[in-house]
Design a protein that fits this description.
By secondary structure, the protein is α+β, with helices and mostly antiparallel strands. It contains 13 helices and 21 strands. The termini are far apart.
């Protein structure tokens, strides 16, 4: 039920406030936000452009913009009753405003509705986290108001708009987008959801966006990849994929239209079969949307506009940095000139002071005091003018540089923009790109839509894409077969034999030199042995000669003794 006229109220009481561990630390992340939104606005008030609300921390959220500073005290639990009053009464001085009350007392001034909400039916919306709330729509108020006001449940039929879900004529539809990595899959999804807001995205990216908008804090803000982004909220059920699995299970129980966005999973036949099994053919109409091949002209134009904007932003950064350095050098030179001029003026004043009398000296002192009093204001005005002139000069230089930026022929031939975050990590892509295939009705799809090119062209493009990746991608999970291992073993055996033969036939210079030294050493040792043998032979001969001479002397002595005997 949405309010389109009159003045109506609903109330909220905080019954319980829990404190839980988040991202490894205990944080007071109990919060609630309540207000009004349009029928087609996102349900999360903190980032909804089509809503206005009051936050439990004391902030006002209007069309996704948060107030600067607290506008009222933090909400208290258990005993307080908070009322949100929507005033669309044309006769009231506070028409088109929303007000917050606590136990019947106004907490802040009436907040004007954003222009986008005026003239539309507004629906009460409540967000809460780690809290238990009691919400009352009437028919009677819990906390008395200083004036008479009707509750939403007691609203006049002419002042409200009752929206009922449209009766579904057929089965809900589940789309499986099939697109190659970094070739516009998520850009297409963003445009599709903008045109068809009744579709719900089922992906890791959607869970991440939901957590961030709900106030969860990421310990590591690196996105990882678009297909499987790292949430890193410090909540086990989210970080390990348990929440995403539970959402998939609950989605099959709700008759809604879904988009199952998984780049890798929708390109691999086995993964597609698993996803199809979750959505029964008796409950859902399962459609594969193939986005492979040359995209239409509007996709190319969007990519070229994004490339041009990136080049202009880069040029703007370079020009801003260059001009800042130039202005800094100019200021430095100007400051040096001013200091030199002041020094010269001071010297001239001192010279005049010596020449003049006391009267001239007193006049000069009074003039100096007056100039000193006027100097700060003059310097501030001059600094303001200089800053304005510098800013204008920088912006003019940036504008001229950006006007000169154009796309090259190579960039004009590019079909897709440069991804800020890759759809798949390079290692994962290297492991699975060889198993990529396009879906067919034989897999169980009720329909296969080829959006960009016909089936034959899309298959041809996919084969060419895979062939190119085989030449450029490093294959991480390549496993050799039995025949390769046998041939490799034979080759290693033959190679070792060749190396042994080569070593036998070839003597390196160091080995030859060592062998030569060994031969020379052996030769010298042989000569020494021969000399020693010769010396021993001569010694033996001398000893024998001496022994023979001694024997002869002994014989002659014996003969002489015999002759002397009588």
């Amino acid at each position: 039920v949405g309010v389109k006229a009159g003045r109506y109220l609903y109330e909220v009481r905080i019954l319980e406030s829990k404190q839980v561990a988040e991202a490894g630390k205990v944080k007071p992340r109990q919060s609630c936000t309540f207000g009004f939104t349009t029928a087609d606005a996102p349900l999360i008030l903190a980032s909804s452009p089509g809503g206005i609300a009051f936050d439990s921390e004391g902030h006002v959220v209007s069309a996704g913009e948060w107030s600067k500073g607290r506008q009222f005290a933090r909400f208290a639990a258990y005993s307080r009753v908070y009322g949100v009053l929507l005033n669309l009464d044309a006769a009231s001085p506070n028409c088109n405003t929303v007000s917050l009350f606590c136990d019947g007392e106004r907490l802040c001034q009436p907040q004007p509705l954003p222009e986008a909400l005026k003239g539309k039916a507004l629906f009460p919306t409540v967000n809460y986290k780690n809290m238990t709330l009691q919400v009352g729509f009437g028919p009677s108020v819990c906390a008395g108001m200083p004036f008479r006001c009707r509750m939403l449940q007691d609203a006049a039929a002419a002042d409200v708009e009752v929206r009922k879900p449209k009766p579904r004529t057929g089965k809900p539809e589940v789309l499986f987008p099939v697109s190659l990595p970094d070739e516009g899959s998520f850009d297409w999804l963003g445009g599709f959801l903008a045109q068809h807001p009744h579709y719900t995205e089922l992906s890791g990216r959607a869970v991440l966006d939901w957590g961030v908008k709900s106030g969860l804090h990421r310990r590591n803000t690196a996105a990882g990849c678009n297909d499987k982004p790292a949430t890193d909220f410090g909540v086990k059920e989210i970080d390990e994929g348990g929440l995403q699995g539970a959402i998939r299970g609950l989605a099959t129980m709700q008759p809604r239209d879904y988009v199952v966005m998984e780049v890798r999973g929708n390109l691999v036949a086995e993964e597609r079969q698993k996803a199809l099994a979750q959505f029964g053919a008796e409950d859902f109409r399962r459609v594969a949307v193939v986005l492979v091949g040359e995209p239409p002209a509007e996709v190319k134009a969007k990519a070229h506009a994004q490339l041009l904007e990136e080049k202009r932003a880069k040029v703007a950064r370079e020009v801003r940095q260059k001009k800042a350095l130039e202005l800094a050098e100019r200021k430095k030179a100007k400051r040096a000139e001013e200091e030199a001029a002041q020094k010269k003026a001071k010297e001239e004043a001192e010279a005049k002071k010596k020449e003049g009398g006391e009267e001239d000296e007193s006049k000069e002192e009074s003039m100096e005091e007056k100039a000193a009093e006027e100097a700060p204001a003059a310097e501030a005005a001059e600094k303001k003018d200089d800053d304005a002139g510098e800013a204008s000069e920088i912006e003019d230089a940036i504008r001229q540089a950006q006007e000169a930026v154009v796309l090259t022929e190579q960039e004009k031939a590019q079909w897709f923009p440069n991804p800020q975050v890759e759809d798949l990590p390079k290692k994962d892509l290297a492991r699975c790109f060889g198993s990529f295939s396009l879906p067919s009705k034989a897999e169980g799809f009720d329909e296969v839509r080829f959006v960009w090119q016909k089936e034959a062209k899309a298959k041809e493009y996919l084969q060419a894409w895979i062939s190119e990746r085989k030449l450029t991608q490093k294959v991480e999970d390549l496993q050799p077969g039995a025949r390769f291992r046998t041939l490799l073993e034979q080759w290693n055996t033959k190679l070792q034999e060749w190396r042994r033969r080569q070593n036998d036939r070839r003597e390196p210079p160091k080995a030859a030199a060592a062998k030569k030294r060994k031969v020379e050493a052996a030769s010298k040792e042989g000569e020494a042995n021969e000399d020693a043998a010769d010396e021993n032979t001569e010694g033996d001969k001398t000893a024998k000669a001496e022994e023979g001479k001694k024997a002869e002397d002994e014989e002659m002595a014996d003969e002489n003794e015999e002759e002397k005997a009588p």
